[in-house]
Amino acid sequence: MRTAGIRQRFLAYFADRGHTVVPSAPLPTPDPTPLFVNAGMVPFKPYFTGEAAPLWQRATSVQKCVRTLDIDKTRPVLDRAADLAGVRYGADAASDVRLRVVADHIRTALMLLADGTAPGNEGRGYVLRRILRRSVRAMRQLGFHDRALPELLPAARDCMAPSYPEVVESFARISDQAYGEEDAFRATLKQGTTVLDTAVAKVKDEGGRSLPGAQAFLLHDTYGFPIDLTLEMAAEQGVEVDRDGFTALMNAQRERARADARARKSGGAADTTALRRVLDAHGPTDWRAWDTLTTESRVLALLGAEGPAPVARTGDLVTAVLDRTPFYAESGGQDSDAGLLSGASVEAEVVDVQRPLPGLVVHQVRITAGELAVGDTVHAAVDAEWRLGARQAHSGTHILHAALREVLGPTALQSGSYNRPGYLRLDFPWRGALSPAVRSEVEEAANRALRRDLPVGVRWMPLPEAKELGALALFDETYGEKVRVVEIGGAWSRELCGGTHVEHASQVGTVALTSESSVGAGMRRLEAAVGIEGFGYLARERDLVARVAEQVNAPRAELPEKIAGLLDRLKAVDRENVRLKQQATAARAAGLAGGMIDANGVQVVTATVTAEDGAGEARALATAVRDHLPVGTPGAVGIGTGAGVVVIALNKAARAAGLNAAALVKQLLGGRGGGSPELAQGGGLAADRLADTLAELPRVIGGR
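Above: the chain sequence. Below: its structure as tokens.
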């Protein structure tokens, strides 16, 4: 019996006996404590802990698991990987490990992508990225260097489809993201290999045997080069890696990130122990952000840089805990509110609001006058203009998301967002940049919703009902028994959301797209100005067009044609410059060829170009001189640049005589450089050694 059949029989047995069949939780579980679901009971945790009332009297569920091998859900992927690599499972222990890595990781990646996780640089997205890249790396280690995921991912899909049909329904999106990640990693490998080879060559030139940890960290942090790949490739060239130095730099980076995250989430207080005591003593914050902009509040606690404080004075920046608050705490992509706390003896500016612990809201405040003490009563007031801008931006984000899906289709799902008054950004999985026409279409769809003045409504309902209605949810958010559903135009935009919103779409004002860019492999980002800031952006664009029109002396309507004409003229000038330069190179090449010297039957020419000309000019001159050498007689050309690059070109007769350009470059430069047998180059040469190195070429060729 296959796995899907066992699963179905298990669920049917309990369903027949009165249990409700509960679908598996997604691998990126809404619970913030585990990174992924790592135990079958995690989805039921709120009911066990009393945080929520159970939705069913009795329930049964089969949860997804990412660690199973040699079953019908995984073995076909392993077998396909073995076929591609031309190896047999069970014949070699090292190959077997790599095959199991591929099978396990490909299936896990498939399910994570199906559940909405996208490759990224943080959290679950980073784990997914590492899983995909490790799969690709394992296939390369097995000897398969072509694109692997287009062969392996469909095999995993076919295995999982009987139990999880969503992998078929979403496979276009899944494969697009996965294949894009592989393509990006292949480019990373190519670029990182060049950097690593240069660094290893430098270590050898200096007589060293160990690659510095800082260099390995640079490869990892800047180029995305895995440390295990750095270790392996360095070892292949006889160089060790300072692993301790690399680890120290990695740990320092992680600790900086953790400290920043802790301080951010606790409103500036890195240690949440004191906040936990406040929560235990006073209970959850009475949060009124959905209902009002002002409250009369009592100060429950103050925390400074050194811990709890009884009082804060003018100039102090402290974390304040109130018994009730009208301030929105940063969450769901919406920035926190700004505003003031005022009392009989204090004026304070609220600069940040966070939820460091479930149920507890804290305020980072700067005392601008007087002093604030624990037990004081204060008037808490949200800046009304700030809140209006925040509502416009958050509703604008929902509207842009719906417009994006209207134009691109349902796979363009939001993978992250951020909004504050006047500004929003939205990340979504997509391969390749959006064309100007598509961007305009998305922007028009968003503003059409504003013009139609679509109603904005809020409803509370059980989570299963919300999902049944098609409400979109973000996997990084935590949802309770009942969820808040924000609708704009009914089903046109329906999302689970805890943010603040306008009452009608027209109140957003305008949505003006300002940028569309890449934020990672297969991930795009849209940025927009909204509200009064959106109108300001459009006004600045109008003024810019007016200034350009004045400078090129053309009506606005004719600007595209006028600028295109100017660019054509510039290109024509560039082409003429290239032609003249080629003529000069050809003339110099003819002169240099006339001065060739004989080295054991090989005609050799050497010369230099300036550092400003660069390696490209050196290659052009080398090939031009080579073409002027006598046909049928072996010929070699060596050209150096003031920047320490040496280029060697050989004609066909020299190749037939057994010469190799890449080998000659390496011999002259102590192992550095590379290229083809006909044309090669290397760098890293000190400027004062250039002439002597080129003078060595005839001797090296003559002594072969």
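The chain has a mean pLDDT of 87.
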